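Mods, move this if it's the wrong board.
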Amino acid sequence: MSESTTASAPALQPGPGHNLLAGKTVLVTAAAGTGIGFSTAERCAIEGATVAISDRHERRLAEAADKIEETTGTRPLAIPCDVTNQEQIDHLMDATVAELGRIDVLVNNAGLGGTASVIDMTDDQWSSVLDVTLTSTFRATRAVLRHMVPQGSGVIINNSSVIGWRAQQGQAHYAAAKAGVMALTRCSALDVAEHGIRVNAVAPSIVMHPFLAKVTTDELLAELSAKEAFGRPAEAWELANVIVFLASDYSSYMTGEVVSVSSQHP
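Not the wrong board. C-alpha cells:
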C-alpha cells in the first residue's frame, strides 16, 4: 500500500543531487502519476542518470515526462507499455536500448492492489493482482536480462512491500504477489550473479502520494501510519532515495536483498 494521514510532514526535503547515477541509463516502469515510480524516475534524473519511463496511461505518461523535464531540464524517454503484455515489454526494452544505447538499471515498479476476503475473492481478482504485480516483474526481468547479460552488467530493483512479510485482512492476493516478488528477487539474483548483474528489492509500507488518499479511508491511513516508527507515512522521494542507492555503485556488493523502507519487517 502507499500514503498519509494527519501526521506532520517530514522535516527533511529531497535535497540536491550528487551525481550518484551519472553515466547510467535507468528505466522505470509504471512511472506516470505522482507515486513511487514518478518520484524514482525524477530522482534518478536529478542524480545524473539518463532516464526512460513507461506506463500504460499515455496521457499521464506524457505529463510525467513534462514534469521531469521541468524539474531537471532534461526530458526522459517515454514509451507506453502494458506490463501484462510480453510483446509490449519486449518492445519497451528494445526501444530503450535502440534510443539510449543500453539499460544499466531497471526499476520494476508496476503493481496492482485491491481488497477482498479470500471467502469472496474471484479468480479474476486473484489473477489480475498476481499478473500485474508479480508476473509482470518476471516478464520485465527476463526481457531486460537479454540486454544486460551480453553487456556483462546491470541492476534490477523490484518494488515489493512489507505486506509480503506480514498479514493484513483482505490482502491475500496482494500479499502473495509481493511475497512472490521477494522470492523472485532472491532467486534471480543467484541466477545472474555470474554475469555481473545485481537484483534487489525495496519493501515499503505506507508511502504518501495523492492517489492513495483518494482510494483509502482516513481511518486506515491513520492506523497504518501509527504502526510506523516515525508515526507518519514515508514520502515517495524517501523511497526513491533508497532505490537510487541500490541503483548506484555504492551498493556494488548487495544482491538478493529485500530492503525494508519501513519499521515493519521480520
